[in-house]
Amino acid sequence: MTGRERVKAALDHRETDRVPRLLYGEVIGYVPAIEHLLNKKCAPLPPRDYFKMDLTGLMPNPTRLTIDRFAPWYGKNADEAVNSGEIDEWGVRWKKGSYFHFARIHSPLKAAKDLGTIKKFPLPDLDQAYRFDGLKEKVDKFHKNGFAVAALAGSVFEQSWFLRGMDTLMVDMINCPETAHYFFDIASYYQKKLAEAFAKTGADIIMAGDDVATQRGLMISIDTWKTFFKPRLTSMVSTVKNIDPGIHVFYHSCGNIMDLIPELIDTNIDILNPLQPDCLDLSIIKKKYGDRLSFWGSVSVQNTMPFGTPEDVRAEVTRRIKTLGTGGGFILSPAHVLGAETPWDNIDAFFEAAEIPVY
User: Fold this and answer.
1) Rounded distance, CA 162 to CA 182, Å?
2) How does DSSP assign 152-170, residue by residue?
3) Does 262 have pLDDT greater than 80?
4) Neighbours of 203 (CB within 10 A)
5) Fewer CB within 10 A of the terminal residue: the chain, N end or C end?
6) Tens of pLDDT along 34-78?
7) How many CA atoms lie within 13 A of 162 on its CB side?
8) Are residues 319 and 336 in the same domain?
C-alpha cells in the first residue's frame, strides 16, 4: 500500500498492513531543535522519506502584507516590535525567551476598551486567492509520491485569545458576549476560508481545533462551548463536506476532553487528536467512540518520547497500536510536536515499533 492508500483505508475503518504513522511536526512544523536534529540525521532525505511517513502537511503561501501595518497597535515599543521579526500575520507578537522555542504571547488587543476600536485592527489576507496559488499542483505531486495530505485550517478560540488575551477574552464571554462573538466570527471566517480553499486543492484531511481543556477537564462549560463554538465548527465541517464528502475533518484539543467528545461527534468531525495519554484512558475512548471516530496521536510527549528509554518508546507504541489500531481508525503519532529534549534514539525507536502488524 502507498501511504495515502493506508491512511484512507485506516480512516474508513478498514484493515491495513500497518498503522499509518508520522511525526506530528510533519504537518504543523517542527520545533527548531528537532528540525535541526532530523535534518542532520536524515540527510540527504527529508524526514518524511527517511522514516516512510504516510502523511505530510500543507500551508498557505506567505502573505504579501507588511508587518508595519501593526505599528500603531504597539505604542511606544512599535519600532522594536515591528523590527523584532516576532509579529505574525495576525499581528500577534511571539516574544522569544531563553528556553528553546518557547515564547510569550503579546496580545495586541488586550487593552482595547471598546468594540469600535477593536474593529479597526488590521486583519490578514488568508481569504485571497494568491495564498493558494500552486497548492493543488503541490497536493497532486504529494499524492503521486504516495503521501496523504493534511492541511491546517487553524483555530477559533485560540486565534481569538492570541489577539485579545485569554483572561480578557474569557471575561468578554461572560460580560461582553458581543465582543467575544466578534473575535470568534473573525477567526471562524478565516478558518472556513482556509478549509474551503484547501478542500479544493484535493487535500485528504482538513485540520482544525482549539485547546479547550486542561489535563483535569474542560476550561469552559459544555453549554458555553455549545454557544460560542459548536455552531461555527459544525458550519466549517459542513463547508468541507459539501465540497467533497470524502475529505476527513480533524479536530485537535490537548487535555482531558472526554466530556466534550459526544458534542464533537455531533459536529460531524471524523478524527480526534491528540488523545493525550497522560490524562485520558485511551482504551475507554476507543471502546465508546471508535465506531464513530478515528484517532490520531496517543504517544506521550510529556514523558515517554523525551524522557523514556528506546525500550519504553517501543512498548508504548506497541500498546497504542494494539489498543487503538484494531479495526482501523488510527493514525499513530506522538501526541504533539516533539520537544527539544527528545533524543534521536527515541525517534528511531518510535518508527521501528510502528512497523508491527496490527492484525
Assistant:
1) 14
2) EEE-SHHHHHHHH-HHHHH
3) yes
4) 29
5) C
6) 999 999 999 999 999 999 999 999 999 999 999 999 999 999 999
7) 20
8) yes
